[in-house]
Specification:
Layout (H helix, E strand, L loop, with lengths): L18 H4 L7 E4 L6 H9 L3 E4 L7 H32 L10 H27 L1
Length: 132
């Protein structure tokens, strides 16, 4: 019966008027969707058919003061965050860290450590060539 459960992929946001037809099930369906379904009309249609709307929210709590604190925090950590993301991106792209090769937490940790060692060795060689 799970294959009849409505999902956000089955209904394009421009076809909100067809939403009740998609929710034929009389059970309490959790309707998970993107912010395209955020609003009064889609929520009423979902609730009218017995669904529970669970839509991604894009706003913030705290208004302008919270946004100012967030921007100040991001300005402080931007350089470090960019540096760290560069390392993780390189490890994912070039050193196979996109997927774990082995099952288990210990072996996954080993793979992450070996990847870090390989990255550091390669970076050391690059820095030594640049200094020479």
């Amino acid at each position: 019966m799970d294959h009849h459960r409505p999902t956000a992929r089955k209904l394009h946001p421009s076809r909100v008027q067809e939403l009740p037809r998609q929710l034929r099930l009389r059970v309490r369906v959790r309707w998970k969707s993107s912010s395209a379904f955020n609003g009064d009309k889609p929520w009423k249609a979902i609730r009218a058919r017995g669904g529970i709307p669970q839509v991604v929210q894009t706003g913030t709590w705290g208004g302008a003061a919270a946004l100012a604190r967030l921007k100040k925090h991001n300005a402080r950590v931007r350089r470090i965050r960019c540096w760290i993301e560069k390392v993780f991106g390189t490890c994912k792209r070039s050193y196979g860290l996109r997927r774990m090769r082995w099952l288990g937490l210990a072996k996954a940790g080993l793979q992450a450590r070996l990847t870090a060692i390989a990255y550091n060795l390669r970076r050391t060689v690059t820095l030594l060539h640049a200094a020479a």
